[in-house]
């Protein structure tokens, strides 16, 4: 398996290079030159497989000969060793042909554990004894960084730098980030939004200041962040129809990687008949899918904070696919977007996307009502992000005869206070995290200061 850049660089690289990367050399994102294809019968024959074996079947074609079969099997299986449910990602029924795929049984109780646990083991495999020369860098508004820090034990030599917005990060996640500072980890508050954090990280990768240190993204700009999530779709479809029955998915827009992963799963042969993108009032993705207008702008705080942003890096991979893997066309579109903050694609490409995708923006009042209604009618407690997906899935499903699966990305207990207020939580409500002032707050454009912090972290100071 070879990989190329979304922006048309001629150089092709192997899976090892992709794992140990931030951005491609030309500033694009790495993508596979071709996708593995599975027949309906081949997929159907996987219906009896446990999750880790299914994951190996889906992941191994993307790895190629970069890792031998025995090592990859062991590595993939070990990635799920700390999950608390024997099914890894169980399904819970919430209505007629309506389901929630529970992706929150990992060590940090969020779907980000799938990519983080897999990525750290892949990084460790490829770096081996030189792991101390790797620096994992990324932006997060909570769960992604917490999952990466938790998984760092699997890569003992590497160091990690996480940027998070000073306001808008949930208190319990911020407390973990503030407590994580050590000789190997630096969690740094930024005086700006999550989008500002993302932009700063992208600039850092393009102007990397430490030539002897391998820069690796722990965000889903790294292909592993997408690869780990393709498995979700195969797992759910096999559980609900043996891989032969069409299935729809509703995806809360906490990351475009999960949305794009569903698109890739369909191209690989999985019978997905619809993907609904649910947003909150920060509706940049809804506007893109519904009206072919994508704009970044200021984000407002909502009940679903993991969705409070408008800059989605994996949208570039999706555009590349829609433009039939045309690197120069993708480069022109993305450079225009980076310059003016606006993006529209060709009408033919947009109509192609609409064949699979629908979207809906869910307000806080609708989210509250969905949480309360689901608990009252099913006894199922869901967090606000899952509630947006369940609401949008019920409202916009195209085929009531096909199962509709909402990706449940965050454990409900992480929103216990809100759920208790709505009468949808009868368990213990954790006390609010005690937060101190961040030791240092980085300006949203302070690339020089970020480089100095990187050097100090690499030196163990």
From TrEMBL:
<comment type="similarity">
    <text>Belongs to the threonine synthase family.</text>
</comment>
<feature type="domain" description="Tryptophan synthase beta chain-like PALP">
    <location>
        <begin position="92"/>
        <end position="343"/>
    </location>
</feature>
<dbReference type="InterPro" id="IPR037158">
    <property type="entry name" value="Thr_synth_N_sf"/>
</dbReference>
<dbReference type="InterPro" id="IPR051166">
    <property type="entry name" value="Threonine_Synthase"/>
</dbReference>
<protein>
    <recommendedName>
        <fullName>Threonine synthase</fullName>
        <ecNumber>4.2.3.1</ecNumber>
    </recommendedName>
</protein>
<dbReference type="Pfam" id="PF00291">
    <property type="entry name" value="PALP"/>
</dbReference>
<dbReference type="GO" id="GO:0004795">
    <property type="term" value="F:threonine synthase activity"/>
</dbReference>
<keyword id="KW-0456">Lyase</keyword>
<feature type="domain" description="Threonine synthase N-terminal">
    <location>
        <begin position="2"/>
        <end position="80"/>
    </location>
</feature>
<dbReference type="InterPro" id="IPR004450">
    <property type="entry name" value="Thr_synthase-like"/>
</dbReference>
<dbReference type="InterPro" id="IPR029144">
    <property type="entry name" value="Thr_synth_N"/>
</dbReference>
<dbReference type="Pfam" id="PF14821">
    <property type="entry name" value="Thr_synth_N"/>
</dbReference>
<dbReference type="InterPro" id="IPR001926">
    <property type="entry name" value="TrpB-like_PALP"/>
</dbReference>
<keyword id="KW-0663">Pyridoxal phosphate</keyword>
<dbReference type="GO" id="GO:0009088">
    <property type="term" value="P:threonine biosynthetic process"/>
</dbReference>
<dbReference type="InterPro" id="IPR036052">
    <property type="entry name" value="TrpB-like_PALP_sf"/>
</dbReference>
<feature type="modified residue" description="N6-(pyridoxal phosphate)lysine">
    <location>
        <position position="112"/>
    </location>
</feature>
């Amino acid at each position: 398996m070879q990989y190329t850049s979304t922006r048309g660089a001629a150089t092709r690289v192997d899976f090892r290079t992709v794992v140990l990367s931030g951005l491609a050399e030309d500033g694009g994102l790495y993508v596979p030159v071709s996708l593995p294809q599975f027949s309906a019968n081949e997929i159907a024959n996987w219906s009896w497989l446990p999750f880790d074996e299914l994951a190996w079947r889906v992941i191994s074609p993307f790895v190629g000969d970069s890792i031998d079969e025995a090592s990859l099997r062991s590595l993939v299986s070990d990635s799920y060793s700390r999950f608390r449910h024997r099914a890894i990602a169980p399904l819970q029924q919430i209505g007629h042909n309506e389901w929630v795929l529970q992706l929150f049984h990992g060590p940090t109780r969020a779907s980000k554990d799938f990519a983080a646990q897999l990525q750290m083991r892949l990084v460790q495999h490829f770096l081996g004894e030189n792991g101390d020369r790797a620096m994992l860098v990324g932006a997060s508004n909570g769960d992604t960084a917490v999952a990466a820090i938790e998984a760092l034990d699997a890569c003992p030599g590497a160091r990690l730098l996480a940027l998070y917005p000073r306001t808008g990060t949930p208190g319990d996640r911020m407390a973990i980030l503030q407590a994580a500072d050590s000789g190997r980890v630096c969690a740094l508050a930024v005086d700006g939004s999550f989008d500002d954090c993302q932009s700063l990280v992208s600039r850092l990768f393009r102007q990397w200041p430490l030539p002897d240190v391998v820069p690796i993204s722990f965000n889903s700009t790294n292909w592993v962040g997408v690869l780990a999530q393709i498995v979700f779709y195969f797992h759910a479809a096999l559980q609900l129809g043996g891989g032969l029955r069409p299935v729809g998915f509703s995806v809360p827009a906490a990351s475009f990687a999960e949305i794009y992963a569903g698109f890739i799963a369909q191209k690989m042969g999985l019978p997905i008949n619809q993907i609904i993108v649910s947003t909150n009032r920060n509706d940049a993705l809804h506007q893109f899918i519904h009206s072919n207008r994508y704009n970044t702008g200021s984000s407002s705080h909502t009940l679903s904070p993991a969705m409070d942003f408008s800059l989605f890096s994996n949208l570039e991979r999706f555009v590349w696919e829609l433009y039939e893997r045309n690197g120069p066309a993708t480069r022109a579109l993305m450079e225009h977007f980076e310059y003016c903050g606006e993006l529209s694609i060709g009408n033919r490409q947009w109509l192609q996307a609409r064949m699979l995708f629908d979207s809906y923006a869910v307000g806080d009042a609708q989210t509250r009502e969905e949480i309360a209604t689901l608990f009252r009618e099913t006894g199922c407690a869901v967090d606000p992000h899952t509630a947006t997906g369940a609401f949008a899935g019920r409202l916009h499903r195209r085929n009531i005869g096909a199962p509709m699966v909402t990706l449940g990305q965050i454990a409900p207990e992480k929103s216990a206070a809100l759920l208790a207020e709505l009468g949808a939580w009868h368990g213990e409500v954790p006390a609010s995290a005690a937060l101190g002032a961040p030791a240092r707050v980085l300006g949203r454009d302070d690339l020089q200061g970020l480089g100095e912090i990187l050097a100090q972290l690499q030196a163990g100071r």
